[in-house]
């Protein structure tokens, strides 16, 4: 018996369209198909880009108040239909229903912030008379949209990470073409639904679903696409950089986030925060806690308390409001995590809890004594596994925290402000959370990292900066007017 699934259309140039080819979106919890989605061709992607370029070039004036109105009404639509958004997000992805509701709330805020920032895209006057001989010159600079933005988004935050690209692009006056992750395209399509409802002019948003191998290169290489915004893995990021050519590229490529816990910290608070930071969203979170360095005098107590708290987490049905940890995005990913854990154990690591896989479910796992040569020690696990290790002191912790090719975010727990500032100065990361785990972010802050964690910054205002260019205007006044 075949289960009938809902046929969903993609948005190209203001029109909801089918495709001759489709693919199923499945619930990772049980592999049950939940929707049939168009599998776009490179011709479809080309049409979306051409419609975006046409919409942008033919819009002589798109006033700020209209952009604010569209963004505000899209946010209002999302708020009115928040539960529908949350259930869509939870069904196609890994998040529990409670986590999905939280993401929807954040995505609404992201679009609201975009509306607010649209009115603050300002320039500055320039004192040209600072240069000798330029006493009769005055001027300013202002920001203008680049035209067409291309966005490629991952599965782990399938709504809010799309909102972080669409919101700033529209706020700045750009058209945008989104290629969402193939395993979680439904949330992106629902966001597009909100913008269509809000009266976004045709062509300013397209969401093209399908295989990255089929349509990704068209989006990345097309000369009309002036800015690329990508969130995903480092291998794909490197390939995109090679293909993109001379255009602006913004990338967030993940991390292996450290947290430092010192003897003067509130250990119970640190445990609570780090358990949440390590295992929320099944660890499929670029700023999730992966390594915890605990000063040696507190190590045993911290480790015991952490294991106990981890054991209290409920693994199960993600639609159950009592569930803490749902499935990973698919069984393949769960098997990968299992293989990394087993490699670490073969090299001498100690397993304290977890280390168990059931289909797409991987149980929250705590390891210690993990050697530096184990893959899990230096790469991003992107799963519910955390490494807890003792350190001699803060200097040792900072040094070991920096000993990976990632630098997105970090955390430190301490009651000494001098220790906090030592970490602030010494940790090579894009963000440091004091008395919080690495897994803390608000959507208005600059977000990005150093080293292999990416290029540029997201966060609405900072994304707008990358999606606009500066133009300088200078007037030379006639002598008879002076």
Name of the CATH first level of the largest domain = Alpha Beta
The fraction of residues in strands falls at 15-25%
Task: Work out the count of structural domains.
Answer: 2
Task: Figure out the total of helices.
Answer: 15
Biggest sheet strand order reads 15-18-19-14-13-21-22
Instruction: Write down the CATH topology of the largest domain.
Output: Aldehyde Dehydrogenase, Chain A, domain 1
Rg computed from alpha carbons, rounded to a whole number of angstroms: 24 Å
Categorize the overall geometry. globular
Specify the CATH homologous superfamily of the largest domain: Aldehyde Dehydrogenase, Chain A, domain 1
Helix content: 25-40%
The helix-and-strand class reads alpha/beta
Q: Give the rounded overall mean pLDDT.
A: 96
Number of strand elements: 25
Give the low-pLDDT segments. Answer: none
Biggest pleated-sheet summary: 7 strands, mixed
Provide a descriptive summary of the structure in words.
- With 482 residues, this protein is of the alpha/beta class.
- Helix 9 (267-279) links the parallel strand 13 (257-261) and strand 14.
- Helix 2 (64-80) packs antiparallel against helix 5 (160-172), helix 2 (64-80) crosses helix 6 (186-197) and helix 5 crosses helix 15.
- It starts with 5 loop residues before the first strand and ends in a 6-residue tail after the last strand.
- The chain has a seven-stranded mixed sheet, sandwiched between helices.
- The chain folds into two domains: 6-253 and 455-470, 3-Layer(aba) Sandwich (Aldehyde Dehydrogenase, Chain A, domain 1); 257-442, Aldehyde Dehydrogenase, Chain A, domain 2 (3-Layer(aba) Sandwich), CATH 3.40.309.
- The chain has helices spanning 42-58, 64-80, 82-92, 97-118, 160-172, 186-197, 212-221, 234-244, 267-279, 296-311, 331-346, 375-378, 394-401, 417-426, 460-466; strands spanning 6-7, 10-12, 15-17, 22-27, 32-38, 124-126, 137-145, 148-152, 175-179, 205-207, 225-231, 248-252, 257-261, 289-295, 350-353, 357-358, 361-362, 365-368, 385-391, 406-407, 409-413, 431-434, 450-451, 454-455, 468-476.
- 39% of the residues lie in helices and 23% in strands.
